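ingest -> validate -> predict -> emit
validate: passed (alphabet ok, no gaps, 246 aa)
predict: started
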Amino acid sequence: MAWLLIDNSNTRTKFALGNRDALLSWRAVIPTGEVLEDTLDAILLEVAFDAVMICSVVPLKAAVFESYFSGKCPLHFLTCRSPLGMGIDYPEPSQIGADRLANAAGVLSRHGVPAIVIDFGTAVTFDVISAEPAYCGGVIAPGLGAMTGYLSSKTALLPKIELAEPVSAIGKSTVHAMQVGAVVGYRGLVREILQRIGAELAGKPKIVATGGDAALIAEGLPEIDVVDPDITLDGLRQVAARVFLE
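emit:
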């Protein structure tokens, strides 16, 4: 049995196939704005699957998926009521983003707990999983792209920049100076948040990074143990096994 796994985030939507044992080789990625029925027809034309597992943080696109798949095969949207393989120690579980729950489910078996998953996307999120295991909260901050985009859109002379490792901490041009502020400054934000979480969390957590900017930021942060680009999709796969096989 194969499942179609869909990670529907604000910027990009990722598709993968998985089964009881692993993620499979087929993948697809599209801009989330292009999630339409015609696009789904084209992507999935020759893809065989028995059920669909989705984590979505975009309600309008979740509605597109629900309309498209309903009646065709079993469909499950990941929520706090899904079988995650862990408890939830959070006052309002329904407020936790589905992608964050998928990350928690993924880190449990891939890297162990306690753990902190940092997802570098449109927003950067820190999700904390205790040794019990239980999802126990986290942090949300502006994403790296959002911060740099804001500067170019709200100032007359600052350009849009390509994110890259700056060659030095003293900027020798406007672009260089912005790269220092973005990349080096962002590492400072991540490091401080990790220190504060670590002071409150029992045990030494495994720190796992994922998302579009994870590799760049992790390169200068020895606090990050591993970059795992598949953790969200694999978390969906593991929940799918509990939903569709048990």
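The longest strand covers residues 23-31.
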